[in-house]
UniProtKB/TrEMBL annotation, chain A:
<dbReference type="InterPro" id="IPR036871">
    <property type="entry name" value="PX_dom_sf"/>
</dbReference>
<dbReference type="GO" id="GO:0051604">
    <property type="term" value="P:protein maturation"/>
</dbReference>
<feature type="region of interest" description="Disordered">
    <location>
        <begin position="86"/>
        <end position="107"/>
    </location>
</feature>
<dbReference type="GO" id="GO:0005829">
    <property type="term" value="C:cytosol"/>
</dbReference>
<feature type="compositionally biased region" description="Basic and acidic residues">
    <location>
        <begin position="9"/>
        <end position="30"/>
    </location>
</feature>
<feature type="compositionally biased region" description="Polar residues">
    <location>
        <begin position="32"/>
        <end position="42"/>
    </location>
</feature>
<feature type="region of interest" description="Disordered">
    <location>
        <begin position="1"/>
        <end position="67"/>
    </location>
</feature>
<dbReference type="InterPro" id="IPR044279">
    <property type="entry name" value="SNX2A/B"/>
</dbReference>
<dbReference type="InterPro" id="IPR001683">
    <property type="entry name" value="PX_dom"/>
</dbReference>
TrEMBL record, chain B:
<dbReference type="InterPro" id="IPR036871">
    <property type="entry name" value="PX_dom_sf"/>
</dbReference>
<dbReference type="GO" id="GO:0035091">
    <property type="term" value="F:phosphatidylinositol binding"/>
</dbReference>
<dbReference type="InterPro" id="IPR015404">
    <property type="entry name" value="Vps5_C"/>
</dbReference>
<dbReference type="GO" id="GO:0005768">
    <property type="term" value="C:endosome"/>
</dbReference>
<dbReference type="InterPro" id="IPR027267">
    <property type="entry name" value="AH/BAR_dom_sf"/>
</dbReference>
<dbReference type="Pfam" id="PF00787">
    <property type="entry name" value="PX"/>
</dbReference>
<dbReference type="GO" id="GO:0016020">
    <property type="term" value="C:membrane"/>
</dbReference>
<dbReference type="InterPro" id="IPR001683">
    <property type="entry name" value="PX_dom"/>
</dbReference>
<protein>
    <submittedName>
        <fullName>Sorting nexin 1</fullName>
    </submittedName>
</protein>
Length: 530, 404
């Protein structure tokens, strides 16, 4: 509708200064920036004591100095524009909630993803015709002490981001790790289309910023290396293959591992298969629940998280519908205004009677109000999007929580497998001992076997203890993460609600003023006997 | 408003309000109480039409009759035939989509439109004199049905009409013979301007009306989305502890409240803003029909004038040659001259009426649209204030929770 906007502007001379007066500055109630500037919350007037009745005739509002206090006017609260440019200062801060725990409030880390470039894969074979891929420039600015330095610039491709995600998943089991952007399976032609690349750039930036806002992960080696070390990414494949591959295969994510793990010792592979069998038998064991989790609290929490996720998804969808509806009504008001402006022009040009000129004037007033209201809806919608985006963001967070819970389940599975391993090995050792004791003088081959078995038992016991320690560690990570999450979520949702409501109030007031003016201008046509 | 109509009947300053002193003539009618009658495909709505008057031509101070939509159509058609040049008030459209035809909304809108229709006729200085109006307002249902039924046939065409039809054919033939292919049209600059204005106006109004209708829909859609959003947010609140849970619940409730306000306003916008715009469009279409009648009358007037001249020339020729056909020719000439004069009078009456009507129309429309705009603006302001108040009520609790 850009063309029609020009038409609107050229016709609304008188109202232009008025619209210019809708000056815009920072929204004091958005999530505060990292520097802890809880700006201007105190500039809002105190809540009202008496509120005007909702159905009052807007024309009969009492003049200033009336007997009751007028409600605070949020129309005067000015809202920041929502700029889609990710590099804009407004949205360049990490999406950090006010409740995130930082050692000091002046810490910051700012990550920007930009300048996508096409590059050739030097090592590709002649047959594949030289595959190209896109790299992105990643700039980091920080004053965190963990990062030795304040400015870093590297070029990374999406494959590197996948690797980063995988490394973090390994190292930070039990933590709520933000999910990385999807790998889209698309043709190479699509890969290089500008829109796709831009979408991916935005997604990467969001992802890295989320990582940087996680209090533990922001200081991880993996992230530091990713952000700061130039050249080809040196991140190695982790050793704990079994526990990583297994759940994914179980839950049908397919073979997502970038490279096949080298065949480890027979022991590991053996254990892998055993765990697979174990968990399968657990799942379809019938009466017994899958992974025997004694922690009732955990089970409750897990179920609660599941319900919460479901409702967040639903709310997120309804929020999208709401945004669309606001956009539509704004557009239609604009089109209506435009149609009346054309009518105004027409009547004025063709006027033979004064009644026509009067009508043209009435139409102009109506059109002006409609166009202004249309603009307000557009601005309101930007605000609504900004605030309700929290719901969309939390979809990612819920996925991260699921990941953390899955880590715990798979760690428990490992423990259980090892426990049953130990007991079955011990069973075999007993049998062998019993059998060998019946042979007088000792059964050399059997004794040897028993010794080997006892060696195996010891190793498995050690592995079991390690697994138990790991499980306990993950449990603790889970707990602290969930606590952090609950805290942050409460603050984020509160901030979202407040931002949403304030913008609704503010813009409703602005629109009321605009329409009241139009009603005033046509008050000679008031035929109501009220 | 004085108008000396050709039939020299007195026009009176007839008032609408029955509260005026009893010596003043008044006539008012209202269309009320829609009732669904009949079954299935033949079902229809009947309305009560209540007439209050002190005019002597009427059967008493008050009369109530039952009418249906096609009766109104009959009245409109009769007036259109008899009062050429007058902008006959428009009727609401014949029918809507089948399932919508009996919705309370549609019935009420139609009733209101029919009420406006009858009242416009009753307050028009010429139309209010109409015998057909009296029939419509007073005749019993059986009589009305007979009238209505008759109208649809060709059988009630009077002999004069047949003669006219014959002449039309004749003139077309002579046109072709004389090589006059060009249609006969009025081309005075003033009238050209008027025609252009009317046709352009219809386009502009139709567009405005289209957007007004869409706006009604948008109100409903926004209302629905807020309702769904409110429900979703309440469910979300049920998963959360305090204070988030309660706040979400309050937010959801408010959202549902705002939704209701929007639905109500949607209905108001439909009735008080979109419908007047639609009426405006219909009125312009009625004017176009009148323009058509004027064109027909003009053509007749021109052609008869031509024919008369030819007959005169012919007569003079015969008189010069002392032909024995003179007598016949003279009779013919006189007849044609009389007809031509009648046609000219008819045409001029249409022109006079139209000139008066256009002034009336412009004033009426400025008034009616002014009212519509005012109500629309007031409604929107009321809605916006209501929405602001509703959301604002949440802020104290939200503030309190944030400052913890």
């Amino acid at each position: 509708m850009m063309g029609s906007e020009n038409d609107e502007d050229s016709h609304l001379h008188a109202s232009r200064e008025e619209t210019e007066n809708l000056f815009l500055r920072d929204d004091p109630l958005s999530r505060s920036d990292v520097n802890g500037n809880h700006s201007a919350v105190s500039t809002l007037p105190p809540p009202p004591i008496i509120v005007t009745p909702a159905d009052s005739d807007p024309l009969s509002l009492p003049p200033n100095g009336s007997s009751y206090i007028e409600p605070p006017s949020y129309a005067d609260v000015i809202f920041s524009p929502f700029d889609d440019n990710a590099s804009d200062d407004c949205s360049s801060q990490s999406p950090i909630s006010p409740s995130s725990s930082y050692p000091s409030s002046s810490d910051y880390i700012k990550i920007t993803v930009s300048s996508p470039q096409k590059e050739q894969d030097a090592s590709s074979s002649m047959l594949s015709g030289g595959s190209t891929y896109i790299t992105y420039l990643i700039t980091t600015r920080t004053n965190l002490p963990e990062y030795k330095g304040s400015d870093f610039t590297v070029r990374r491709r999406f494959r590197d981001v996948v690797a980063l995600g995988d490394r973090l998943a390994e190292s930070y089991r039990g933590f709520c790790i933000p999910p990385r952007p999807d790998k889209s399976v698309v043709e190479s032609q699509v890969m290089q289309r500008h829109e796709f690349v831009e979408q991916r750039r935005v997604a990467l930036e969001k992802y890295l910023r989320r990582l940087a806002s996680h209090p533990v992960i922001r200081n991880s080696d993996e992230l530091k290396v990713f952000l700061g070390v130039e050249g080809k990414l040196p991140l190695q494949m982790g050793t704990d293959v079994a526990s990583r591959i297994l759940p994914k295969q179980l839950f049908g994510e397919g073979v997502e591992v970038a490279a096949q793990p080298p065949a480890r010792s027979g022991r590991d592979l053996f254990r892998l298969f055993k765990e697979l069998r174990q968990s399968v038998s657990n799942d379809w064991g019938g009466a017994k629940p899958a992974v025997v989790e004694e922690d009732k609290d955990f089970l409750e929490k897990k179920e609660k998280m599941h319900d919460l996720e479901k409702e967040i998804i639903n709310a997120s969808q309804q929020a999208e519908t709401l945004v669309k509806a606001q956009q539509d009504i704004g557009e239609t008001l604009g089109e209506l205004g435009l149609a009346f402006i054309k009518l105004t022009k027409f009547e004025n040009e063709e006027a033979v009677f004064s009644s026509q000129r009067a009508r043209a004037n009435d139409m102009k007033n109506l059109a002006t109000a409609a166009v202004k209201a249309s603009r307000f809806y557009r601005e309101l919608n930007s605000q609504t999007v900004k605030h309700l985006d929290t719901l969309h963001d939390y979809l990612g967070v819920m996925m991260a929580v699921q990941g953390a819970f899955t880590d715990r389940s798979s760690a428990l599975l490992t423990v259980q497998t090892l426990l049953s391993d130990v007991s079955s090995l011990e069973g075999r050792a007993e049998k062998l001992e019993a059998a060998s004791s019946k042979v007088f003088g000792g059964d050399k081959s059997r004794i040897k076997k028993i010794e080997e078995l006892k060696e195996t038992i010891k190793n498995t016991e050690d592995a079991k203890n390690v697994a138990i320690k790991q499980y306990e560690r993950i449990k603790e990570n889970n707990r602290s993460e969930v606590e952090r999450l609950d805290r942050e979520r409460r603050a984020d949702f509160l901030s979202m609600m407040k931002g949403f409501v304030v913008s609704q109030v503010g813009y409703a007031e602005k629109m009321a003023n605009v329409w009241a003016k139009a009603a005033e201008e046509t008050s000679q046509y008031n035929r109501e006997s009220s | 408003m004085e108008s000396n109509s050709i039939d020299q009947s007195q026009t009176r300053n007839v008032m609408q309000s029955p509260r005026s002193p009893s010596s003043h003539p008044f006539l008012s009618a209202s269309v009320t109480d829609p009732v669904k009658l009949g079954n299935g495909v033949q079902a229809y709505i009947s309305y009560r039409v209540i007439t209050k008057t002190n005019l002597p031509e009427y059967q008493g101070p008050e009369k109530i009759v039952i009418r249906r939509y096609s009766d109104f159509v009959w009245l409109r058609d009769r007036l259109f035939e008899k009062y050429k040049g007058v902008f006959i008030p428009p009727l609401p459209e014949k029918s809507a989509v089948e399932k919508f035809r009996f919705s309370a909304e549609f019935i009420e809108m139609r009733r209101a439109a029919l009420d406006v229709f009858v009242n416009r006729i009753a307050s028009h200085p010429e139309l209010q004199q109409s015998e057909d109006l009296r029939t419509f307002l007073q005749a019993d249902e059986e009589t009305m049905e007979r009238f209505r039924f008759q109208e649809t046939g060709i059988f009630n065409k009077k002999p004069a009409d047949f003669m006219q039809m014959f002449r039309d054919v004749q003139s077309k033939v002579s046109d072709a013979v004389l090589g006059k292919e060009k249609p006969v049209e009025e081309t005075t600059p003033e009238y050209e301007k008027l025609k252009h204005y009317v046709f352009e106006l219809e386009n502009h109004l139709a567009e405005a009306q289209k957007h007004a209708y869409r706006l009604v829909k948008r109100h409903r859609e926004l209302g629905q989305s807020l309702l769904d959003f409110g429900k979703a947010v309440k469910l979300l609140g049920a998963c959360e502890g305090e204070p988030t849970g309660k706040l979400f619940s309050d937010l959801g409730t408010k959202s549902e409240l705002v939704s209701i306000k929007l639905q109500k306003e949607a209905q108001q916008v439909l009735m008080n803003f979109e419908e007047p715009l639609k009426d405006y469009v219909r009125y312009v279409q009625s004017i176009k029909a009148t323009i058509g009648e004027r064109a027909t009358a003009f053509k007749q007037h021109c052609e008869l004038a031509e024919t008369t001249k030819l007959k005169e020339i012919n007569l003079d020729k015969l008189m010069l040659t002392r032909s024995d056909k003179v007598g016949e020719a003279e009779i013919e000439y006189r007849e044609i001259k009389a007809e031509s004069e009648e046609a000219t009078i008819r045409f001029e009456r249409i022109v006079k009426r139209m000139n008066e009507e256009i002034v009336r129309f412009q004033e009426q429309k400025t008034e009616e649209m002014g009212v519509a705009f005012h109500q629309f603006a007031k409604g929107q302001a009321r809605l916006a204030n209501g929405i602001a108040d509703a959301w604002r009520a949440l802020l104290p609790k939200l503030e309190a929770a944030s400052s913890v």
